[in-house]
Protein 1
Amino acid sequence: MRIKLLGKAVVVLTLVAIFGLLGLWQLDAANDLQEAKNAAPDPIVYQLSDLASPATALDSRSVAKKVSLRGNYILTFRAPNQIDQQGLMSDWEVGLMQVDESSAILVVRGYWKDRLTEPRIAMSTGVDLQAVVQPRQFEDRVRNSPGVISRIDSSVIVALTDLDLYDGFLVATGEQVSEGVISRDRIDVAEVKSKATGYYWQHISYVIIWWLMAAIVIYLPFYRKRQERDTLSA
């Protein structure tokens, strides 16, 4: 009898723990949605090395942060069929900027049609860059071909350089060389969607459901015991 009761207690406690954890999971998801909705832009301008390292996955907390760095462009690519924040499709100019002796990162400089409007940048020219960090793209827009990249992702160009590449890419907001500021139209990329899915009150309703299930599981043994007692007394 004791073993039977112990087995029932273990089952009940296990189910209560599972339902309780499921409720906490949904509560965390609801809080993540609120934090993503209320998050204010970070005003700090970081050094790239403060947020990322070459040949290392980009931390999602670094996305959309501002950076400042100096380097020189060593390769230029056309990235076709890109969509900006306004939903407009166009081809973008993407440069590979070498930031030190051993590493480089992709930089969205502007629209491809404007690539010849600023003749002062040569491959050996040092460029002071202000930019915003973005995660790599996962969906191909076209096929890779000479001078064309299928998506803005360092993994598609690893065969073209011996440098260690940063994960993700930068979107230039400003460029300056020794002769002065580079003036050209910049691109507002589409905002990265939060990984938290659903709606706040939807998650809260799931919290209530899972915790109600936990309460029911706790109550059932007492209900059954009362039913058995009522049956015996009848």
Protein 2
Amino acid sequence: MSTATITAADINKLRQATGAGMMDCRKALTETNGDFEAAIDWLRKKGAKVAALRGDREAKEGVVIAQTTADNKTGIAFCVSCETDFVSKNADFIAFAQSIGNAAIQNNVANIEELNSTAINGAKIADLINDKLASIGEKIGITKFERIDAEYVASYIHGANRIGVLVGLNKEAAEAGKDIAMQIAAMNPVALDADSVPAATIERERAIVTEQIQADPKMAGKPAEMIAKIADGKLNAFFKEQTLLAQVFVKDGSKSVGDYLKSVDPSLQVKAFKRVALG
């Protein structure tokens, strides 16, 4: 049975340190006989339990962060997910996500596991997320993480932190980097060019277009070679629509993205890109 006297000041101190609710803080201090550090651990354990209970809940909302190092040699993009847009639009939650991004850049983080283990003011991000979960009452977590290292990396955030894009270039080109990032945000290409499209994606698309062709009554009885040739043509159309360099440039429909890059600098190349979106 607890014998410690729990004061309003104690509860407020714990709230300030953890972001947990007043009643949760009171219970944590009561359960730990007023031990402040033990109360923090109690709240974290509670947060972990809440996370387990909410494991089947979908966290389709959240905040996407995309940023680069000061020298633009490295870029990171990730999503801190939550369940409702009420939380994702909250200024404190957005600031929390941004603080994680700052820590990721400062600590040269390479993946989600490293990010969760990175500390902010002495506390691991994984623990801070549990604290936030306990105070908000929603399923929260870092659900996606991407990184690019290149001679120059541009970053772009679209739609109130709903999409984040990184573009790795072979040389510095800030304006072109932003233009390409906006293109990727809007058009969501599957790869850089036709040669970069995964074989599984090509096989799936070929199967789809072949079935469409064969279902056309006009193609009944046509030789397999003809059907395959038509399928090749449809695949070429797919590559034009779905690969970055072949796509129509959204800011100038008279040229492709590849043509736009050449107009900026004939030697300018996109080496890699990543797109992180909610959902």
Protein 3
Amino acid sequence: MTNIHVKYMISGPASSGPVSKLQESNSVYVRRQWMYKLMLALSMATLLFGLFWLGWIVFTLLVKGGSALTLALFTDITPPPGQAGGLLNAIAGSMAMVTVGTLIGTPVGILAGTYLAEYGQRGWLAPATRFLNDVLLSAPSIVVGLFIYAIYVYNVGHYSGWAGSFALAILVIPVVVRTTDSMLMLVPNGLREACFAIGCPKWRMIVMVSYRAARSGIMTGVLLAVARVSGETAPLLFTALSNQFMSWNMNGPLANLPVVIFQFAASPFKDWNTLAWAGATLITLAVLTLNIVARSMFRKQ
């Protein structure tokens, strides 16, 4: 105790050394706490700001179009001005084109994402493909519509549901590619090495191990892609156009919800305006539900 006391007294006054360091550390701690609280408050404010606009949009849609969400909306076709009707033909046309577009784009996206994650570790092709996929992912959808119009609609001479499906498929592909690539990259390499150690070929390892491990993430990407293309209007204006009647002919103009909403919202007829609000409410709730389901599936896994 005496030696310690002597060393402590020689080092200087009691308040000059250890206490000053303690005060300095306390000031740093307090500063960090204030910075943490400030950033947390800003994060919460931005979160509430975004939720406010989302809630306002959903509330406005429910107020404007909620009254038109009746059984007739799903059983009657789009009416002429001044008559009652529904959106059966538009709903059926949208479902048909989204389904075909998803069936076309999903296998292409999964296979491309598989190549990037499993075979593209070396060389320039995989980085270039990822870059081009990011460009396509952020490209305006109207450019995709013009592209399909130029290479398909112009050559066949008419609008069609097939053209609309091809445009939606191009929008599906980059979303699925990005999700598949990211999810497969998260699969531990130990699982791959264990398969190779027992003599499993690579294609079988991908199918039986990688796909199973990343199944929920890949399905999430597919659902998010469906949610994205369900509300696209610009590509369908140049490809599928619309149809006032009920039709399952994919080789001709096909009614769809986005284009019908666009046309009815700009019309001077109040009954058409009401149907436009109802269609906007329906498609918004469908997209919101798909997003929630996709996020819930991914979070559960």
Protein 4
Amino acid sequence: MSTLHISNPARTAGIIEKYKFRFQKKFGQNFLIDEHVLEKILDSAEIGPDDVVVEVGPGIGTLTERLCERAKHVLAVEIDANLIPILEETLSPFQNKTILNADILKVDVKKEVQKIDPNAEIKVVANLPYYITTPIVMGLLEGEVPLKSITIMIQKEVADRMRVGPGTKDYGALSLAVQYYCEPELVTIVSRNCFMPAPNVDSAVICLRKHANPPVKVEDEKFMFRVIKASFAQRRKTLANGIGNASDLPITKQQTMEVLRSLGWNESLRGETLTLEEFAELSDALKKLI
């Protein structure tokens, strides 16, 4: 085993050269080569010897190696079959890992984790491919995954969307979903120069700690998120138009306007002005029409 961590640029380059690995743009592959950033990810995720960790897109094992040093067990899910033999070698010193060659969007995470520890509450830690960040995060939050936290490196712009409140240009369905399920905390901004190869944009590390209970009460959370998605489907449209045009909501524009009036709200409101609490209130009122 090399005395250098995989994150060392010389060791990363050596592994890539040894396997003649070719980066695939379709998988959003950029390997982290900054020890300082790795430490920030690990510290904010608070990985300890009792933790079962799920990592999405381990690449050549840069972060996985460090997770294995701290965690009880690491489930690493990698879609690129070309990386599996590399991971088998780079992680060979560790027995506390499971490498799964699969698309995370098609994996039953709960089932896979139960094979490792039936009682585990997992922590997800990952350097996520930018192009599928939102589906992965929403799949974890909306699925029946026994989740403690999600600590991820993602495109800075997406991290901004997760944290902002009403009235800002970045506020939308993702902001509301993340804040309904979690407490988001920005850990650090990461320069594109911390990766091999360098991506076109800067990144951010964000930690999403799961709420014990959601911060608002709503009768039907799945219905509320249908209302939210409809409200942001066409940002420049009013709430009444967005909800009235939604194919999966059997509610007309006129009915929506009547509900807005009954709540004492302006009929021309847009979704970007409403708080999570107000969306819960609107959802409960609209639900009575069905």
